[in-house]
Design brief:
single chain, alpha/beta, Rossmann fold, 9-stranded mixed sheet, two-stranded antiparallel ribbon, 15 helices, 11 strands, lipid degradation, lipid metabolism, AB_hydrolase_fold, hydrolase
Length: 408
Amino acid sequence: MACLSSVSKCGTLIFVVLLALNKCNCKTIPRYIDLLYDPDMDRNVSLLISSKGYPVEDHYVQTKDGFILSMQRIPHGKVNKNTGPKDVVFLQHGLLSASSDWVINFPNQSLGFILADAGYDVWMGNVRGNTYSRRNVNYTPDRKEFWNFSFDEIAERDLPAMIDYILNSTGQKDLFYVGHSQGTTVAFALLSEKPEYNEKIRLFVALAPVATVGYITSAISYLAPFTSEVHFLFKLLGVNEFLPNDELMKLLSEFVCDTRERFICEDIMFLFFGTDLKELNETRMAVYSAHTPAGTSTKSIVHFAQMVNSKKFLKYDYGKKGNQLNYNQPTPPEYDVLKITTPVALIWSLNDKLADPTDVGLLQKKLRSIVSSSCVSFPLFNHGDFVLAVDAPKLVYNEVLGLFQRFS
């Protein structure tokens, strides 16, 4: 079978095939396709919102280096239609994800809908390179320059652009920030580097907080010992994009994730982040897989793998010569979270494969402005559960609402 479209799609296909061969019971072939179709599989994030009866606005902001970022706004709830000024909440997704994370389940299970119904003005961001932010005024996604970023650039350019746009649009002086996974990483980085943004975030709620990743057990930890080799291979093959939400993934969602072979999709989703099936609505597996992964740069994956090796919260390591050129020193600088003055609330779990409790504990000791740190009571709760679990409202979101009321 010839891979005609791109090396990136070939890489995704190989990845899927390996998972299938590893676990597939060949007696189940041909597949038994369930005749249940969920229209949420084919809806973009705006349609996910409007189809549930909520108002939605699409907004776009351009970064200093030319990326056009998409944001979605739910200005008010389905019942509470107050259009006057209200507290603003900015939700920022994690690695390989998109704004759809916050509205992927039913309204009583999704944080975006819950906050809108509680009377908040809800904004959801999308970082460069994901499904909804694939435009740049200088480069197209088929150019390697488009993908020359890691979370450093997201923290330095994407987050400030989105926060400033939201505050200017609403006339508010500050906002509540909720990040998940990499959404917390970029906020820790931003607040460490640009002190003025500590005044623009009233409270930072970090779900599955990620700063250091020295003790993680996700798939990234297996790449870490071979970081240099993996990076060289990516460059050699011209693979700049990692796990895009392309035609192959959509076909996988339609013809595999909604069948008895859905374990393949589960493996793809859980390989990096983990999710316990007891907390997951498995009937929506095809919907989850249609929206996630949403893509990122291979450089972003390499950056996290570098930090597994260093056990420090460092900027991207370009090697001695590259570091000297970019940072004027032979090693990458470390983000200093001691500089953060924004009130920070950490919510984490014992079974998290990417935000390991040991790493969270090290972060907690360094933060001077921490106002709370709580562990999810369900012991199997994992990294993806913060946005996918059917019990997330009871286990996590009620606490988030309580924190907002405390700081209102």
